Amino acid sequence: MTDWEATYAEEIKDHIERNGMSGIDDFFKKQLERWKKKKVNIGITGNSGTGKSSFINAIRGLGDDDDGAAPVGVSECTTEPTSYDHPTCPNIKFWDLPGIGTPNYRDLETYLEKVMLEKYQTCLIFACNRFTENDIILAREIRKQRKYFFFVHTKIDENVRAERRKKSFSEAAMLQKIRRNCIDNLVDEAGKPISSEDDIFLISNHHPDKWDFSRLTEAILDALPTYKREALTLSHSYLTSLSKDILKRKADVLKGRIILVAGLSAVTRMTFDSGPSIEFDAAHVSGEINEYKTQLCIPVEGSESYGRLSSVAQRKILDLNIKLANSLQLASEATVEGFAGIACYIPILGSLIATSSSFVRAHALLRDSLKEIEEVALAVLEENCLNLLRS
After folding, report:
1. For the IRG-type G domain, which residue ranges apply (predicted)?
2. To the nearest whole percent, how much of the chain has pLDDT over 70?
3. Which residues are CB-neighbours of 1 under 8 A, at least 6 positions away?
C-alpha cells in the first residue's frame, strides 16, 4: 500500500472496530468529501512590493486582473492581515500579512498581538532583494512556535533578465550566488545560518512553471498535517497542469481514495439492487472517474485548452474517453486479476465487502482508469510545458 492508501485503510479499520458496519456508507461518503471542508490558513509576510499579492494570485491560478485577485502594486501597502479564499475551496485561505517595521507593526510584540501567528499552519517570508533583520526576528519566533516557515526570494525573472546581458552569464551560477547570498544574510546573533539552502526558494510569480515555484508548492504541502495536505493537494488545479511532481502527488491521493469509493460501491450494491447488468454502483464509480479527469487537468473535448494541443495529444484524449466510455466492459475483464490484489483489504473491510464482486470490479476499474488518465495527463502536461518554453 502507498502512504495514502494506508491512511484511508486505517480510518476504515478504526470505524469498523468502533461501530461495526453501522453507518459505513455515510462514513465512506463523509471521508470522500472531507477535503472540501478542511480549513487551511497560509500566511505570506514581507514588505510591500515583494510580490506577496502576485504569489497569492498565482498559487490560486488567478491572473492579477481576474475577479477575486489580490490587488497588485507597490502602492498597495498591507495594513492588516487580509485573507484571500481559494476560488473553489473557500476553506483554504492565503493571508497577505504586513511586515514587521511597518507603521502599525513597529515591533515584534505588536506584530504577534495583531497578526496571531498561531492561526497559520505555515508562513512564507518574502523578499525581492535582501532579507531584513525583521524577517530574521520573525523567523525565530515562528520556529519557537514549532511551525514551518520558508524564505522566498521573488522576481527571479527580473534578476535573470538583468544578468543575461553579461557575456559570462550563467543562469545556474547566478541562482547559486543568490541562494548563497540569502544563506549568508540569514544568520542568528552568533552568525550561524538560520536556514538551509533547501528552505530558500527562488521564484517568479509570472512564471510558476520555472525555478522553485513547484518545489515551494510541494514544501508547503509537506508542512501541513495529513488531512490539510489532502485538502490543499486536491484544490490545486492550475499548478497541476504545470508541474509533473504536483500532478503525481495528486494522483497518489486519488489512488488512496479508491478503497473508499470501491467500499461505498460494495455497500450500496448490497443495500440497493442496482440492476442485473451492473455488478457495482455505477454512479459513484463513474463520478470518481470524472473527478480523476478534472483533478488531473484532462482538457474537455472542444475546449480552448483542448484546441491548443497538437493532433497527437488530442488523439490521446479522444482514445482515453472512448476507453473510459467502455468502462463496464473493462471492469468485467479486470475482475479475475482484481481478486488476486484485494487480499490485503480483507483484514480491513472484512471478507463480506472485500471479496464481493462489486468491490473487486469497482477497485480494478478505478485503479486501471486512474493509471490511464495519469499517463495521458502527463503527456498533455509535457506538451504544455514545451509550448511555454517556446513562447
Report:
1. 38-223
2. 89
3. 9, 344
